């Protein structure tokens, strides 16, 4: 069992993993695009290993990272259940392995899994809250506080050492992208 998750969260994670295990593994290299902007989706992806970033390109050409998916994440659920148009680019941040379930199969699984729906809803609210905090820091804060926010956010996905400190597995440029800053400013 993963540390920091409830029994129900672990059951849901196991159910999701079991569902996706019947689909083949796809491998992508760092920098490879999984899903392009406005590309219709043909499936929902389950991340077996690595990290995937979801981003858009601003009018000035800057990349705006809106989400980073880690191991055991699945995406783009929103697009699969709403038939909305994809407004983002999904790119491998490292070597990754993913499984891809056809949209119709995922919808049937999702519709018949109220526990999965509830956990997904909780995740949506957590991400929405983080997004609102990020927007607040982007608009009203100095670079220092934006970086602190991103580092604290990363701690939620990191290993806690025996001494209580965190081992964060993130590069400086990833913090810069998430905070909407240059790498030099972040440094």
Task: Give a structural overview.
Helix content is 43%, strand content 24%. A hairpin with a 5-residue loop joins β9 and β10. It is globular and about 45 Å long. The protein is built from seven helices and ten strands. It has helices spanning 7-20, 77-82, 103-111, 114-140, 143-155, 172-179, 183-186, and strands spanning 25-28, 33-35, 43-49, 52-57, 63-69, 74-75, 89-92, 96-102, 159-160, 166-167. The mean pLDDT is 84.
Described by the principal axes of the CA atoms, the overall outline is globular
Average pLDDT metric:
84
- The proportion of residues forming helix, as a percent range, comes to 40-55%
Point out poorly predicted stretches: none
Strand order of the largest sheet: 1-8-3-6
What's the Cα radius of gyration?
Answer: 17 Å
Quick one: biggest sheet?
Answer: 4 strands, antiparallel
Number of continuous helical runs: 7
Q: How many β strands by DSSP?
A: 10
N-to-C series of helices and strands: HEEEEEEHEEHHHEEHH
What key phrases describe this protein's structure?
187 residues, alpha+beta, 10 strands, 4-stranded antiparallel β-sheet, globular
Quick recap:
It contains 7 helices and 10 strands.
List the helices and strands and how they pair.
Blueprint: H1 7-20, E1 25-28, E2 33-35, E3 43-49, E4 52-57, E5 63-69, E6 74-75, H2 77-82, E7 89-92, E8 96-102, H3 103-111, H4 114-140, H5 143-155, E9 159-160, E10 166-167, H6 172-179, H7 183-186
Antiparallel strand pairs: 1-8, 2-7, 3-6, 3-8, 4-5, 4-7, 9-10
Helix pairs in contact: 4-5, 5-6
């Amino acid at each position: 069992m993963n540390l920091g998750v409830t029994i129900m969260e672990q059951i849901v994670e196991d159910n999701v993993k079991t569902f996706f295990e019947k689909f083949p593994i796809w491998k992508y290299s760092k920098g490879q695009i999984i899903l392009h902007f406005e590309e219709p989706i043909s499936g929902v992806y389950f991340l077996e290993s690595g990290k995937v970033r979801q981003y858009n390109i601003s009018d000035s050409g800057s990349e705006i990272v809106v989400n980073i998916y880690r191991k055991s994440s699945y995406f783009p659920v929103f697009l699969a259940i709403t038939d909305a148009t994809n407004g983002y680019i999904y790119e491998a941040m490292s070597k990754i392995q993913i499984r891809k379930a056809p949209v119709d199969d995922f919808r049937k699984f999702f519709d018949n899994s109220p526990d999965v729906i509830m956990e997904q809803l909780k995740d949506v609210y957590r991400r929405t809250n983080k997004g609102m905090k990020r927007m607040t820091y982007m608009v009203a804060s100095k670079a220092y506080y934006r970086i602190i926010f991103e580092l604290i956010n990363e701690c939620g996905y990191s290993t806690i050492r025996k001494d209580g400190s965190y081992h964060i597995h993130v590069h400086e440029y990833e913090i810069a992208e998430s905070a909407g800053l240059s790498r030099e400013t972040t440094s």
